[in-house]
Design brief:
By secondary structure, this protein is of the alpha/beta class. The protein is built from ten helices and 17 strands. It is globular and about 80 Å long. The structure holds manganese (II) ion.
Length: about 425
């Protein structure tokens, strides 16, 4: 008798700037572990991307470790591979620390003397082998270069890589692995990386992607895909859905509307009561008249939050105004592009192109290592005022400028 869980793509620590979403994501993982304990699984397989980055926030780590130790205290073993997010080739990742602390066991890249992939044996007798995701995208050649050892008994292969034949068309991946590259002789193939539940078979054995436990981006949340994991009882997989919160998705087509009409539509929408925890508003299309900048999106967001949504996201990346033109760019360097644009489109009356270029140069300066934010901002101000004073003629005006008193279009004349 063997019963195990297959979990992947938890991305703990994702949504670092949105506490509500970060919390839902953590809750989904905790809920998954709770179900594993309730269902008395023998072990849990984590097929990569347990954390959203190799060095996550300690509060996130603390919650994750607590949940996993709870499972360990119920005599549930945990086996993991690295994903593409929680792995750092140069430094030790948190995964390494948790392996050292025996929170879980990595089942990856154990090679025997002949260079073949070694298996880890669980007390149930099930053998587990795995390969991590690789950020440098060499999966296909890497898989083909490896010598896979044939398992002796019932075995699970864990991987964090997109399988070409299973990859949905709307998911872009630069490199995939054909299903034939997965090693032969396993009874279950536990996949991770693709944030969607997908099922296939290889020689009759299931090849499964669980989908994310919650999702790691707004794009993930916008898609109406299942969130959850598998519990595999006597080699029969059963999908367990994780619904830690409710999501409302509104899609507004602004194509052909005037900006005022869109504004009105959004006002109406934002005045409704919202019963869901997450409100995702997507606005797309090309306005017939006016610019999207004329809409107060933060007020709309505020009203939606007041109407009951715990978190609101407005995606207007695909909303354009009529006045936007496409600009053709042939130059290679940023400076050349800026110069070309300034020459072609001009500067406000009286502003010299050289002044505009130098000002752009000053404002582009980056904060240097160890520089405080105040000092950095001060440096930008100082350099900007120095430039303005330098350009001001006659010299008698020098030093008279104060922020807010000078209008850039008033400078006039040849600065040199
Ligand atoms: Mn992932």
């Amino acid at each position: 008798m063997v019963r195990f869980a297959h979990i992947a793509d938890c991305h703990l620590g994702a949504f670092g700037r949105n506490p509500a979403l970060r919390e839902y994501n953590l809750k989904a993982f905790e809920e998954a572990v709770r179900i594993c304990i309730e269902r008395k699984v023998d072990f849990i397989i984590i097929a990569g991307d347990l954390f959203h980055n190799p060095h996550p926030d300690m509060e996130v780590v603390n919650r994750a470790v607590k949940a996993m130790i709870d499972a360990r205290n119920h005599d549930i073993r945990i086996y993991a591979v690295y994903g593409s997010h929680d792995f750092n080739i140069a430094k030790a990742s948190l995964i390494d620390v948790l392996e050292s602390a025996e929170v879980f066991k990595k089942v990856v890249q154990y090679l025997d003397e002949e260079g073949a992939l070694e298996h880890v044996e669980d007390p149930t007798g099930v053998e587990i082998a795995g390969l991590s995701g690789r950020k440098n995208r060499m999966d296909a050649s890497y898989y083909l270069s490896l010598d896979f050892k044939k398992p002796k008994g019932d075995a699970i292969f864990v991987f964090h890589t997109p399988v070409a034949e299973m990859k949905p068309a709307d998911i872009h991946e630069s490199e995939t692995v054909p299903i034939s590259a997965l090693p032969e002789g396993y009874r279950y193939y536990a996949g991770g990386h693709i944030h969607r539940r997908l099922e296939a078979t290889k020689n009759g054995a299931p090849v499964l992607y669980t989908g994310a436990t919650f999702g790691s981006s707004y794009t993930d949340l916008e898609k109406e895909t299942e969130r959850g994991f598998y519990i595999v009882d006597e080699w029969e997989p059963e999908y367990v859905q994780l619904d830690v919160c409710s999501i409302r998705r509104e899609d507004v087509d602004a194509d052909g509307l005037k900006v005022g009409e869109l504004d009105e539509l959004l006002q109406e929408l934002s005045e409704q009561a919202v019963d869901e925890d997450i409100f995702l508003l997507k606005i797309h299309g090309e306005l017939k008249e006016g610019a999207p900048e004329n809409i107060d999106f933060s007020a709309i967001r505020g009203r939606l939050e007041e109407s009951g949504a715990k978190t609101v996201s407005i995606n207007r990346r695909q909303l354009t105004g009529k006045n936007l033109e496409r600009i053709k760019i042939n130059e290679e360097s940023t400076e050349k592009i800026e110069e070309g644009l300034l020459e072609e489109y001009g500067t406000p009356e009286g502003v010299d192109i050289r002044f505009a270029e130098e000002l752009l140069g000053i404002l582009k300066a980056e904060q240097v290592d160890g520089e405080r934010k105040d000092d950095y901002e001060g440096r930008l101000w100082d350099n900007t005022w120095a430039l303005i004073n330098e350009l001001e003629t006659p010299k008698s005006k020098k030093g008279s400028g104060k922020p807010g008193q000078v209008s850039l279009v008033d400078f006039g004349g040849d600065p040199k």
